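Quick one: structure tokens for this chain, please?
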Amino acid sequence: MAQDKRVAIYPGTFDPLTNGHANIIRRGLRMFDNIIVAVAADTGKSPLFSLEERVGMAEKVFAKEPNISVEPFQGLLVEYVARRNVHTVLRGLRAVS
């Protein structure tokens, strides 16, 4: 991605990707030129779907949105962010009542 672009990474397990996730990602495009949806491989959880299935579902949801890309990642988020040379992590807040 060009260095003058504002890029954010939205990490998660996305098991499965929800409408809430998609909403946050699309709203993020108001502030960022591109968003990378980073699907975590090593979660410490027992995912319902495989990594390939989770990546595939997200790719299908965002297929018509060229400013949103989907890719798997392994290891620590901080290391992945550094490898991608991105300086912003986009996150939502979960209200626990």
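The chain has a mean pLDDT of 93.
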